[in-house]
Amino acid sequence: MESVSTPHKVEAGAGSWLWITLGTLLSSFGYVLFILPLNLFEGGVTGLGIIVAKFLGSLFADGRMLPVVGMVSWTLTIIIFAASIRVLGKAFGAKSVYSTSLLYFSMDILLWYLQSRGYDIKIRQLLDQELLVASIYGALAIGTGMAIVFNEGAATGGADALAQVVRKLRHIPVGKTLLVTDTIVLTIGFFTFSDAMVGFRTMMYSFIFIFIQARTLDAVLNGFRANQLVMIITSRPDAIKELIFTELSRGVTEYKSYGGFSGVEKTTLATVIGRNRVPTLRRLIADADPDSFVVIQDTAQVYGEGFETLPR
């Protein structure tokens, strides 16, 4: 039977591509306006692209960075994608290829435009004494853009793919692999400068930039799903359940539990609610059973009835 796309599904699909485009362009602007003019480094594949552009610039363009960061990074990313498909399957898909291509080619086009107008020199002069400010704002722009893209199920480069391959084959966490690759890239970048003190200064600010970028990525990405898991161990489960049902309109999972030391039987209630509704829930629990034992923790992703649909 032939499937028919509903207007709602078409609109949702178009919205996803639009968000990917906006997030990718935001990251591109962050790189070109704040990172590249000051020769700060990114880790991973983009960092390698910056290093190659800086090296070629020192050979052929009187030290000015050639507008080839995107082309070099895109080529390396496509190679990594092709090598990773057998391990990771086709999950990268059209969105990741689109986002990666848009990021790297828009970086080259924007950098070429700024250089053709002489704006890159003005930006460098403006921010040269404000490396910390440039690092922070560049990290905020790039981290936010990446989070928007990740939230739509796409990737912006090959370093993530490489880290996922290592995790699947060697069971090494993604964060550790990315930390190692970023450190290697920054170390290589240090030796691209003829002045060791300039290289050391740039490397230190680049570490600040990468750290803030990662924290921004986590904060914004988790902010899209700002939910919290609440575990309530209580001797008055019925009263608390009723308040959660009526006041918060949320579901509850219930199971019996026993104190490891006391051996006393109680009931554990588990519910997931938005972060902004946690104060109300705490008040309701205190009214129903002030002796309850309550644990509240952040959740990055929640799927199921009342939340997001489980992605395929």
Give your account of this protein's structure:
By secondary structure, the chain is an alpha+beta fold. It has two domains: 7-223, no CATH class; 227-299, Alpha-Beta Plaits (2-Layer Sandwich), CATH 3.30.70. The protein is 65% helix and 10% strand. The longest helix is centred in the N-terminal third of the chain and has 29 residues, at 7-35. It is elongated. Residues 1-11 have low confidence and may be disordered.
Offer a few descriptive terms.
312 residues; 65% helix; Alpha-Beta Plaits; alpha+beta; 10% strand
Gyration radius, rounded: 24 Å
Q: What portion of residues belong to β-strands?
A: 5-15%
| Overall number of domains | 2
Structural class, by secondary structure, is: alpha+beta
Number of strands: 4
Query: Going across the major beta sheet, what is the strand order?
Result: 2-3-1-4
Helix content: 55-70%
Helix-strand pattern = HHHHHHHHHEHEEHE
Shape: elongated
User: What is the terminal separation in angstroms?
Assistant: 21 Å
Low-confidence stretches: 1-11
Query: Helix tally?
Result: 11
